[in-house]
Amino acid sequence: MNILFRALNDATRREILELLKDGDMTAGDIADKFDMSKPSISHHLDLLRQADLVASVKKGQFVLYSLNMTVIDEIMVWFMQFKPNAIQAEKPRNRFQVYK
Amino acid sequence: MNILFRALNDATRREILELLKDGDMTAGDIADKFDMSKPSISHHLDLLRQADLVASVKKGQFVLYSLNMTVIDEIMVWFMQFKPNAIQAEKPRNRFQVYK
DNA sequence: TATATATTTAGCTAACTTTCTAAGCAGCAC
DNA sequence: GTGCTGCTTAGAAAGTTAGCTAAATATATA
After folding, report:
1. Most buried in the list A55, B65, B83, B95, measured by CB within 10 Å?
2. Strand, coil or helix: B51
């Protein structure tokens, strides 16, 4: 949880996540979206990967980055603890058996 | 959003939020739960208040702290952007009008 | 093989954060 | 008033982080 919140505690890294929401991108394409040196962006990507918020795959000379949703789910669960009256995630069920 | 994630980026502050989940507490009672000086806890409470994650009210010589849920909702909305296929929050509706 | 491109690593500095102790302020009780 | 309790503010030390440039690594291409 610690490494997760640390990764999220930076506007640039949160923007990177928002970019990746719309599809995978190479490290260079991500860097081009920011007014910041490539090594700095590379460092941010490293932190996001450490937190497992993104995954990276080497494609030839490029490195493709993608969002990892499962960790985002984990954070949402943490936040849900503060909402005890929230509707729980429903188990999928057969609609026609409900009022049998 | 920045100040919010900054406030959440600390294990002590997250623990304070979890304590307050179960009910309001005075600054002193909160401090007693941690192996840390009172001024340090006071500082953490200050950051949580700056982020609007908690509210404080003076009660005589005590200061009562309480959770503020509305900001937690705000964060959840931010996270939801990454889950485009999630079930949207349902508008309350009359169950018996659905299949009219 | 040489060269260009894509990305990361290393090493640095400035700024920020966490923690402490000491001191201050406010309310309560005598 | 004086003193006690509860809490915050101030200031300093130690550690962490974000950004930079320079250099290294890896792949593609001529």
Report:
1. B65
2. coil
